[in-house]
User: Fold this.
Amino acid sequence: MRLPQLNSHFLLKLVCGCWLVTKLICYKLWLADRFFPLVPVHDGLQLMPPIVHSLLFAVSLVCMLLVWIFPNRKIAVILLLSELLSCLLDQNRWQPWEYQFICLLGAFVFITDEKKRVQAWQIILTGIYFFSGLSKCSSYFIHNVWNYLFLKELAGIFDAGPWLLRAGYSIPLLEMLGAVALFFKPTRKTAVWFLCAMHLFNLLVLGPAGININAVIWPWNILMPFLLAGLFYNVPLQLFERPALKPVYTLLMLLAWWILPWLQLAGLWDAYLSGVLYSGRNQQLYICTNDLGASYRLSNCVTIAGKDMDCKTAISTYKWGMQEMNTGPNPEPRVFKAIAASWNKTYPKAINRFYLFRAGFVSETRPLFPDK
Assistant:
């Protein structure tokens, strides 16, 4: 079967259409008029008026719509600047799809040659699939995603045996294999079909027909098969030829998507900037507080505290983010510390304790501030 070759202008239209829908789904993430704390890259940016957040959000949406109608490099530049400025104002906006879309948009802006632009996009997609698979190679994925979401929630299997649990490791291995197969002509088309099927399966599992959760990533799962088909199915992949590596931006994409993600394994690079998608490895922040008003306001986010938490119930910041912004917070320790500082400022008279929790066959709980 021969699929049509799609150029970067058409693919960018698809990206901006998906991007626009995704941002509308989690619109509160992009505004300052919310209860969930803002976490700018510098404390001085906390003083930025809320209207600035709203204006950047509006500019981005308008630019996405214009690019969707007519891909224009000047409009793309404005869109790129507005997104970068908006992300400086809140690190919770550093979502995996946002990072990917910004990098794809940057290739359109900084690379004028069509072939080299497509090659930069190929680098981004292969990196996503490889490191997404690598991040799932752990018992946390088996416990939190394979066993809980796939077997219990979707299939209704509540007592999986050891062999069925171990079968879950085939998922990350196949995803990594699919990424590697994209590099070779004899296996490229098969890899495209396999990875497209994987996204369809994700939609069936997470979408309205399945568990019906995390709607913010539904558009992304619809977009990715189109990008795979347009960038790989009938397109040669020659990343390592010398002409392909001339643009500085292409080298930056190699750095961002194939070198820096290795540092994430040592905690030296952000998980959300490393293709860590549904790995089950990310820690979550829980807040123990004796402020009844706070607990009442966030009653839908209160859960039974872990055994090593100094309280009976705790507020899950992941549930809080999903409830208010339709997406979870950026799961980095520096972000959690900023959220904790904002909480203490809001409730200075309360006794507040903060814990990092990661579910697993052996769950882990530790204080966010171990010296206190």
Q: What stands out?
A: The radius of gyration is 21 Å. Residues 163 and 208 are 29 Å apart (CA to CA).
